[in-house]
User: Fold Transcriptional regulator, TetR family from Ferrimonas balearica.
Amino acid sequence: MTVKTAKRGRPSQLNAERIVECARALLAEQGKIPSIRALSAALSVDPMAIYHYFPNKAALLEAVCLALIEAIHRPAGPDWRTEIRALCLSYLTLLQAHPGLLDTLLSMDGSGPAQVFIARYEQALQPLALPQPVLNDSRDLLVDYLHGYALAMQTSQGKLDLSYLDGPLAFWTRALQREADAH
Assistant:
């Protein structure tokens, strides 16, 4: 009589990148971060195999969000207004493409994804040479506006799109330029 034993250990095709990519796909499909059980089922692995790469769901969540946020605009040009607009549009487009991402970002304990946005924000505004407190306040105001805008886009059923961002963003950039001129 032959007894089949389940193969223990990590499946050879599994790695952290594959887990994150699968979680990203499920997030896009379902609008929320998948459970470890759902993720393991999609990968055809035992749930414990995922814990070899990520010690807990929070670590997996941070890795998935970080992988998504890395795709936002990287400022590289000298025109800070153009760079900020591109950063805002890419961030809102990302949030629009992954409806559960904003809720996930707002509920996270880790700051990795936020640090990516902060670094790119500060890079875009380097030409203004603003003091750090002004950078922080202007960033917080803009991020809160973008998050509200993303929520409004989600609930508007297509009636609100990215084109409506231009007026308020132009107002914000004029105010920031005045602040830079004052320093």
